Amino acid sequence: MIPELSRSSVIIREFSRVKETLRAMQAAGAGSLQVIADFDSTLTRFAHNGAQVPNTHNILEKKWLVNEDCSEKVMELSNTYHPIEITTSLSMEEKMPHMVEWWTKIHELLIQQKVRKDLLSHAVKESSVILRDGYKVFFDCLLERQVPLLIFSAGVGDVLEEVIRQNHVFHPNIHVISNYMDFDHTGVLRAFKGQLIHSYNKHEAAQSHAAGLKELQGRPNVLLLGDSLGDLKMADGIAEPQNTLTIGFLNEQVEERKEAYVNSFDVVLVQDETLDVPNAILRNIQTCMFQIGLLK
Ligand SMILES: Nc1ccn([C@@H]2O[C@H](COP(=O)(O)O)[C@@H](O)[C@H]2O)c(=O)n1
């Protein structure tokens, strides 16, 4: 049905479930569909030319935005907390307090550094952040079919928006839930707004924020894209979900985490830097809708 699903980088636990879910989504059409996607290492590439691609926090941690001492602290924090974030030997509940600590410390550091709003655009331009191959088709096709795209990120919302703006795909069907910066009247960072979002509390933000978005209501079918097991909670704000297809990007520590990912996501993409599979799924849903339209 979808040749991209036969690639060697694709692992599917239960093919019959994927097939049935896709059939149901096709039958219901684009009017019933919403797409929920994580941002860092999901819509952006994880690696490019052998180097790791920066995430939205990393973009802010550049030496000309923060001082050397801060850069070192950022690195130490990452070395301490990132292994906890991705280990399979701790449960999500056990990881939570560590994630709160990491995000709180990093946000405090950024506030101390008095990051300036007017430098964000330049920081993104100078960074090596890159969206996954096939991103334009993905964003444009959702716009064309008026399918809402909820980007749900534990990264930094202001930076995320700038990345998609500079790639010319910040379309009106996009909604972002993320950590946004609060600048004072001179444009200097003084706080982060609202409830902190980290990798493992997205269910809380889903229930308090996403559930209230009227553009997403009446769309019970969900295509969910993420790179962390915590991303599976991004659809928790949907009142009565009908069909959900989850796609997980397994970017690093592949052998250690493969089993957990295959048991949790419907489709696992192993070190796949493209959006080919989500695009093929969307194309498949649309082609079918188009055929139904022709038959009417
Ligand atoms: N100080 C930090 C905090 C978080 N990260 C990484 O950013 C990712 C953001 O989350 P998404 O929901 O957009 O995936 C997260 O996975 C952390 O690894 C960081 O690098 N530095």
Automatic annotation (TrEMBL):
Its EC number is 3.1.3.5. GO terms for biological process: nucleotide metabolic process. SUPFAM superfamilies: HAD-like (SSF56784). InterPro entries: HAD-like_sf, HAD_sf, Pyrimidine_nucleotidase_eu. GO terms for cellular component: cytoplasm. It is an enzyme of class 3 (hydrolase). It is found in: Cytoplasm. It comes from the Eukaryota. Keywords: Cytoplasm, Hydrolase, Magnesium, Metal-binding, Nucleotide metabolism, Nucleotide-binding. It catalyses: a ribonucleoside 5'-phosphate + H2O = a ribonucleoside + phosphate; CMP + H2O = cytidine + phosphate; N(7)-methyl-GMP + H2O = N(7)-methylguanosine + phosphate. NCBIfam families: HAD-SF-IE. Specifically hydrolyzes 7-methylguanosine monophosphate (m(7)GMP) to 7-methylguanosine and inorganic phosphate. The specific activity for m(7)GMP may protect cells against undesired salvage of m(7)GMP and its incorporation into nucleic acids. Also has weak activity for CMP. UMP and purine nucleotides are poor substrates. Belongs to the pyrimidine 5'-nucleotidase family. Monomer. This is 5'-nucleotidase.
